[in-house]
Design a protein that fits this description.
This protein has 423 residues and is mainly α. The protein has helices spanning 3-14, 20-49, 54-82, 84-101, 108-136, 139-170, 173-195, 219-231, 234-249, 255-275, 282-302, 312-342, 349-377, 383-406. It has 14 helices and no strands.
Length: 423
């Protein structure tokens, strides 16, 4: 393959095709500029601009995470009642208002009110965003469209991080206030963008309305949700556990950590679309999830080798381990999108997608402490049971998805293709 053809292939895997797929991906990039900016600068903003202690920040964010966990299913049901586009737009406007109010916060109580409100809004808008993408596109295009969104999402995160670096360099209260007001403006622009997307006819309601928590009784689906949620621990492994391992058990320079984060961003932008092929059906998504799980298990066996190597060889082992985990993330993410697109019934998609996200929320609660304890504080032997856990999850998810496929969903409706845009 010549250089020109290689460039064309890369462009095809990064630049979405014209139409709704491109519009959704560009929206994701714009949103991520604000989100990435805040993630990169939030810790300093909370302590410098709001005057909070690290303990107060940690407590507030933990309470907000609990609200997100408890609210993801019932708030996801709002999408079924009011439509994903309406919930998405309202959520973005509320996000903008809450971020704009940050400089007015006085003390821990005000901070807690804002972060809890943001957690509740994000629990509903996260579901609405995903449901709109699923409803608006034919089944064969859904996973690819979400892959393009994730690719440009990482571009936006990178741009946001660059802007954050400028704010941190200035390091004044005015700069931090300007940062959150800029983020609020970005979310308002995103809301206008989303409002201009095609309006969809709402899915027909079931003759017997389903309770917002009834989805939790769909045992096969919830098993798939929990298994898939555990596999999203690749994020915790990459951003938390691996850096701690590098700092405490290897002789690699600290700059390697930043280099590995950059490697993650670049590979996701370049390879996410290609890695998503074949995950647009429930069986294909299940197989992708299994491959992702086995690659995470392999990462758990390769990374500890860096604890006994020295010099350049340590860096080589770390890059190899990181690459394994990035590929696992690419494939597992596609599996997750395929499962959320294929398994939920159209009329109750919001509640089901919210319930599917519950598995990820549970992972956020247990994985940081659990995987750090296994991988870092044991000195290295804990990576073996960690690898065994991910192997078992990978082996279980294909039969679990088959079980869910054989079991009728609660309040299930007829199969659908894509919602018809409203003129």
């Amino acid at each position: 393959m010549g250089a020109r053809e290689t460039i064309r292939t890369v462009v095809r895997n990064v630049v979405p095709p014209a139409g709704l797929t491109r519009a959704l991906a560009v929206q994701a990039m714009v949103y991520a500029i604000g989100s990435g900016l805040f993630h990169a600068g939030s810790a300093v903003f909370f302590t410098r601009a709001l005057g909070l202690s690290p303990a107060q920040v940690g407590l507030g964010l933990s309470i907000a995470a609990g609200v997100s966990l408890l609210g993801t299913v019932p708030l996801g049901g709002l999408t079924d009642r009011y439509g994903p586009q309406r919930v998405w737009v309202v959520g973005l406007v509320l996000d903008a208002a809450l971020f704009a109010s940050y400089p007015l916060v006085g003390g821990f109580a005000g901070f807690l009110a804002v972060v809890v409100a943001l957690a509740a809004v994000d629990a509903s808008t996260g579901v609405a965003r995903q449901v709109y993408s699923i409803n608006a596109l034919p089944p064969a295009e859904r996973v690819t469209a979400m892959a393009y969104q994730r690719s440009l999402l990482n571009v936006g995160f990178g741009l946001g991080a660059v802007i954050s670096g400028l704010v941190l360099a200035v390091d004044t209260i005015a700069a931090y206030r300007g940062m959150v007001w800029f983020i609020a403006a970005v979310f308002l622009v995103t809301a206008l963008f989303v409002r201009r997307l095609p309006r969809l006819a709402q899915a027909a309601r079931s003759a017997e309305p389903m309770s917002r928590l009834a989805v939790l009784r769909d045992r096969p689906f919830m098993v798939v949700s929990m298994l898939s949620g555990l596999l999203t621990a690749h994020q915790t492994l990459y951003l938390t556990v691996m850096p701690l391992w590098i700092l405490t058990h290897t002789d690699a320079p600290k700059a390697v950590i930043a280099g590995l984060v950059l490697l993650n961003t670049v590979l996701i932008v370049l390879l996410q679309v290609r890695a998503s092929r074949g995950a647009d059906t429930a069986p294909g998504a299940a197989r992708a999830s299994r491959r992702g799980a086995l690659l995470i298990a392999l990462f758990c066996l390769v990374l500890p080798i860096s604890g006994v190597t020295r010099g350049l060889l340590t860096v080589v082992v770390l890059v190899a381990a990181a690459t394994l985990l990035i590929v696992a993330e690419l494939i597992e993410s596609a599996g997750t999108w395929g499962l959320t697109a294929a398994l939920p019934p159209a009329a109750q998609r919001g509640a089901y997608v919210g319930a599917f996200r519950l598995g990820t929320q549970v992972q956020y609660l247990i994985a940081p402490a659990g995987l750090t304890a296994l991988g870092v504080t044991t000195g290295g032997w804990g990576w073996l049971p960690a690898a065994a856990i991910f192997t078992l999850v990978g082996l279980a998810i294909v039969p679990a998805v088959a079980w869910a496929g054989r079991t009728p969903r609660l309040a299930a409706d007829d199969p659908e293709q894509a919602m018809t845009p409203v003129p």
